[in-house]
Amino acid sequence: MDRERMLMAYKLAAIDIDGTLLTDDYKITEKNKNALKAAEEEGVQIVLCSGRAPFSVTPLLEELGIAGYFICHNGAVTSHSNTKEILHEVGFTIDSLKNVLDYCRTENIHTDFCTAFDMYTESLDREDVRAMYAKYLAQPKLVEDALSMKDTLVKFTLFGTDAQLNKAYDELAAMNLPLRMIRSGPSYIDIIDQTTSKGSALSNLAKHLDIPLSDTIAIGNYYNDLDMITMAGIGVAVGNAPGDVKEQADMVVASNNESGVAEALERLVLGKKQQV
């Protein structure tokens, strides 16, 4: 990479949470915390950008001592941690997912569905499901029948084994849904509006803040991060990312367990730059 490009003054860093900012045991390393605060002091807006719902993002911002915009639901919602203002929201109705619901019920794949700020599910009977929600600080509300939901949804999620979801992805893709399916992790498929992605949300937020995309950094680890990695001025993959994600990034840094976010910020913002 051109060293002169690295020395530019970046104004915004969009950072994925799970598998990127957090370690495998869902902690933020002290090195990452220090680098994020230092980057913010250098004038870089820190924007957490996740598939999580707001209630799973804002506690991390509080832990970091950072306030501002964040992107959640894989780009379907952009909000502000202080004002709870919704800057951007793209949704759909549950009716468009009747065939998906039928499939998941038949295949014993757990599902949940989110409005901008709330999460719902039909069942909390399984121990693995309850453990999964506890990791994400989630307390979904129970509904008897998802199809009774009248509110606009922003995300519908399937939770299962990697093998289950590989099969489900192929079979659901054959249904030609009017929505977008993405693998947001080995245990998850997210279904969102066709126009929604972390990349499109980053673009909308940068425009709102009057920041050129060329002045943005995106750091991620998985396929749902690719849109923002390829759209940002510089896209960074952490070392634990799949090979085909790394191939599309401009820079590869250490893994999530080795404070890869801090390495990226040190090289791009904080002056500890090395030739890539």
TrEMBL record:
GO molecular function annotations of the record: magnesium ion binding; phosphatase activity
CDD domains reported for this sequence: HAD_Pase
Gene Ontology cellular component list: cytosol
NCBIfam families, sorted: Cof-subfamily (TIGR00099), HAD-SF-IIB (TIGR01484)
Protein name (record): Sugar phosphate phosphatase
Species this chain originates from: Aneurinibacillus danicus
